[in-house]
Amino acid sequence: MIDIEFKEVCKHYNKGHQVINNLSLQIEQGEFVTLLGPSGCGKTTLLKMVNKLIKPDDGHIWVKGTSIHDWHTTALRRGIGYVIQQIGLFPHMRIKDNISYVPMINNMTKSFREKRARELVHLVGLEEDMLERYPRELSGGQKQRIGVARALAADPDIILMDEPFGAVDEIARTKLQEQLKHIHQQLGKTILFVTHDISEALKLGTRIVLMHKGQIEQSGIKEELIFQPKTPFVKDFLGLKGFKAALNEGIMEQIYGDILTGDTSMQAFYDQINTRIS
Ligand SMILES: Nc1ncnc2c1ncn2[C@@H]1O[C@H](COP(=O)(O)OP(=O)(O)OP(=O)(O)O)[C@@H](O)[C@H]1O
Question: What average pLDDT score do residues 175-182 get?
Answer without folding.
Answer: 86
